[in-house]
């Protein structure tokens, strides 16, 4: 396993992380959760990611039980969870979502109860909350870190560049800590935010990235290449009722979807040339980006974890020439010329 | 129920709140307190307000017992209490009132003990304390919020505009949090402070309002319209010995009182035209003000809560024309021409 | 002459000042301006007040010429002018009024040109400007004081208490100087702002006051006592076309006016008892207030100056008993009991 | 003419401004510059915009000469210039561009010499400079404003949202002033930055906008509708050698160009329905955006100025229905759902 610093911070995370979205506490049985997490740990993965809203809080519970059962040392693992964007326990009360001081404090306490941990390593703002003043958000995350001791670091997820910079500026002004990491959607088909909008954030603010959806919900594995119009029976999009899954299914076969599939088919040629599966190409490509601290992967069986980890060996196979071929297929991110100095 | 942000903060409160003044722990039995609070909760009210001085501390005790008994989740309700302006436990020791650091810390701890809660959501300075330096006040409220974790936000009650602005300025200067809400006396017969003196505070300082006495101690319900000289037997003013009640009884029938009754009689015509009871008109009128986060209502029986909540349906009935008629009766608030831009 | 500190500052102003409103450069000839100013100076008055908008800039020009002609030493006099509330030169261009940084810098430069002075001692914001952020206002006044050297101190005129406190707070936060003085309308018939709204500002912020209109446009001299319905021929209200004069004339004889005249008539009895003219009583009463640094008086002939100065001798004649009689007539200012500790 | 505040600042600019790009000191003779500026002034335009790099510094010289010749009062006009992005005088020395402290101070001094003015009202950073630390940039702009008195306000041009927020945050932290205005490219065919990326900046940071290219270099006037493949003889794109003109000519007739022309043709139908020329529709549409302080227009003859000003009358003709039709043609800007609250 390769370990990378979480942005400019002192924390090291495995370059591949394991995420509990959709699966732990939800689509997979608890035994499977245990098997996947154990496999990940045995492969050297130390970073496990969940959220208050994953499977209505069950993901945190399942993950916490596995940690207990396997008797992992607390200092050997990096655990993160996230607040906002769907409440825990399937219920969205007036004040148990968003990023108010009240929810950050109450929500993290509830997450820790579910995880049965004293603290997490990273607490994320799962989505921005435009109604709450940024100063309130920054202060509340500092409170749970500095006074309560419930987290080591805080980060953001799916925030805009200017929101992250605002949070960093306010933290600086108030002598507090800003977010050290952002968790964006990032893959071969969705590069713009990470490589374009965020371009200044890495060196100027020391921002780290823990990216999710490296396969864009499976698209980049190539498994939908031959069923362009409707999800194949048994696939995640066929049965799920998660809001993201529903969104994907509803858009299955539309114009944007077909444009994506077109690119994925072309990427197959590149993957074959490199001599690796498509999904490995997609993962390795994410890992190639030096601003990425960890690529969060999902797994519904232990073998998938092993497959995912292979991508680490393929990073070097992505030579400048191969990267150029990939850019030609998926489109590179043009940087504003006014700033390319 | 409608929920509004508490000023510019991230906290959401129900547009109608339930207050424990005079009643809970005092004029009404504990069973009634429970019945009223349950009814309020069932109507969607999430904001419950009390104070260390209400019924000499008994209001906090009664409210805390109901919360326990009904098994409410802490993240589902917003609880506020207040310090200063009459001590708790019926005793006013040298240092157990005012806004000294000593009383803010000791007083809030005692309130939490009575409420049997770990923290309140909002802690108010019940009245200003002109003898204590504002910096001491601001620092002490920040201490109980940031270090002790005994409150989420702090506010003021019956402060002047310049006092609120001073507190905000000192907080800014010291990198601390200022008050996010003021709790003023506000109703159809007392508009000047909220609409005049405070006019700049909403947009410049993001101040929220939780207002009290929407019926001006019952006057605006019209129930004193026919007994202009002495309180009707059985009314609150006939029997109470609270200082406010005494004040009202002592002024019953004087010039200011009769001027008010005159207006209330005229408002009856408007209420009849709109087709709602006078008290509903009075409540809806307060709710119509977009700077009001929550109108705190009292109730000595559950049916009153249900009555009060009806006002939410009547907000839209207060058309610009009706509002103009009301202004003609009670008098609009003239804004200083130098600032009417 | 008595000299008082300008609030908490180190500057001393004569307890009576001479103002150039309506008269200098306008209603009176330049010779008269010179005569009045000379008389004032000879009486020990060192504080001369004008504004960019008085007589469309002519007041500043006239005052500057007199200073030159009489060869006064710069360090022997205190000169103030004001920006905003009507442009200079009779014209109101888009940006040559208000309190934008542009107008504060350009406007003060133009005032200094008209006054033919290198600097004024006090530059006032003649009225608040709600459209310009307070931080911009505070910074611009500091710029003309600290960097340009065009003024020694800055003040406000007819601002609300919370606006003054906001300016002081921002100045503190930014390490800049706040306003040291407010110039309000203050007289026996208009006490509320100075004694009520401003009550906390004197000790907490060291605010000084230079008050204007001690006779409420002549009303308190008693000269309108016998012509309640229309201004006597030849009086200022009969002929003027200044906006304030027009306002007064338009309200001549209305309800508020007659209420005032009623009080003035009763005050005559008090003045007679004390044995001084009504106008002297009115002036002395203003001077009696220890928070008043200087009472700005007008004069359209030198003798008036001499009359005005006599009031200094009458301050001590206003015994507690006389002051109580006056309160009984004009109404005292009730302080909020919650803050009378 | 309509005047709007420059963002949250106290400065007022005419809703239409006149820019000196390409024309003044360059493509048009000096007599024409004078005629255009006079016409603009007579129409009530008070905002005149130039840059050190326009026509290699000749634009500033020409504009300065006109101001002198027409004898405009300094407080009656708002003059802006810009630093960085191409040096003045046709030469790009190592240090006479960029946003180093050295160039901001030396460059602005040189601009003032060319303009023959003591100060400008707004100094813009014409483009970001990614090599210079933001703190150096913020400090240098504050130096020329606060210490040198060479400008009243500073702004940015074509910066990203996160760069603007970083500058604001650093200014706040250091007690300095941040940028009050951004000058972006904005028109019916290029909405994304102003309406999407910048969406949070208006209310959170009080940012104003002075937009350029309301007709996208003439495209939106419809004059290229009938010559899709090559610029019509005599048009700006046929003869110019400015870098922007070259860029446009090189892309004439390509895919993006033709997509634009397609939309412009459809917009003609809307313009006809409203009963105004296409260019007037394009201008009025920019003016309709309440976050736009001023739309900078170009003119190579006085009649064009008169034409442009007509757009002010057409703002109200853009009813919600018409705006919806326009959106359907050019595409609305989707706001990130996570932030649409």
Automatic annotation (TrEMBL), chains A, B, C, D:
A GO molecular function annotation here is: oxidoreductase activity
Q: Which ranges carry the NADP-dependent oxidoreductase domain?
A: 16-329
Mark the transmembrane ranges: none
Tell me which SUPFAM superfamilies the record gives.
Answer: NAD(P)-linked oxidoreductase (SSF51430)
Pfam families recorded: Aldo_ket_red (PF00248)
Q: Which InterPro entries match?
A: K_chnl_volt-dep_bsu_KCNAB-rel, NAD(P)_OxRdtase_dom_sf, NADP_OxRdtase_dom
Keywords, in A-Z order: NADP, Oxidoreductase
Similarity-based family = Belongs to the shaker potassium channel beta subunit family.
Task: Report the protein name in the record.
Answer: NADP-dependent oxidoreductase domain-containing protein
User: Mind giving the lineage of the organism this protein is from?
Assistant: Eukaryota, Fungi, Dikarya, Ascomycota, Pezizomycotina
């Amino acid at each position: 396993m390769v370990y990378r610093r979480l942005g400019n911070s002192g924390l090291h995370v495995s370059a591949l992380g394991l995420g509990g979205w959709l699966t732990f506490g939800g689509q997979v049985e608890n035994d499977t959760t245990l098997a996947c997490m154990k496999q990940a740990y045995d492969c050297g993965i130390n970073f496990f990611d969940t959220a208050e809203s994953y499977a209505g809080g069950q993901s945190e519970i399942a993950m916490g039980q596995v940690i207990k059962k396997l008797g992992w040392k607390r200092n050997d693992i990096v655990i993160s969870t996230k607040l906002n964007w769907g409440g825990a326990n399937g219920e969205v009360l007036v004040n148990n979502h968003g990023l108010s001081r009240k929810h950050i404090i109450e929500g993290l306490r509830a997450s820790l109860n579910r995880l049965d941990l004293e603290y997490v390593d990273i607490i994320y703002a799962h989505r921005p909350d435009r109604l709450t003043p940024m100063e309130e958000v920054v202060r509340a995350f500092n409170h749970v870190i500095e006074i309560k001791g419930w987290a080591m670091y805080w980060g953001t997820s799916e925030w805009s560049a200017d929101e992250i910079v605002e949070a960093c500026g306010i933290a600086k002004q108030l002598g507090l800590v800003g977010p050290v990491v952002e968790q964006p959607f990032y893959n071969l088909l969705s590069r713009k935010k990470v490589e374009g909008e965020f371009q200044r954030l890495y060196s100027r603010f020391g921002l780290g990235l823990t990216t999710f959806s490296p396969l864009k919900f499976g698209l980049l594995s190539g498994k939908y290449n031959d069923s362009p119009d409707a999800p194949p029976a048994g696939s995640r999009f066929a049965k799920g009722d998660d809001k993201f899954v529903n969104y994907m299914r509803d858009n299955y076969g539309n114009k944007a979807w077909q444009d994506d599939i077109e690119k994925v088919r072309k990427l197959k040629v590149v993957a074959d040339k490199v001599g690796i599966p498509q999904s490995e190409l997609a993962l390795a490509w994410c890992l190639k980006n030096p601003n990425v601290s960890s690529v969060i992967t999902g797994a519904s069986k232990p073998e998938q974890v092993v497959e995912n980890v292979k991508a680490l060996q393929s990073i070097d196979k992505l030579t400048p020439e191969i990267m150029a071929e990939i850019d030609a297929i998926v489109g590179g991110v043009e940087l504003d010329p006014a700033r390319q100095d």
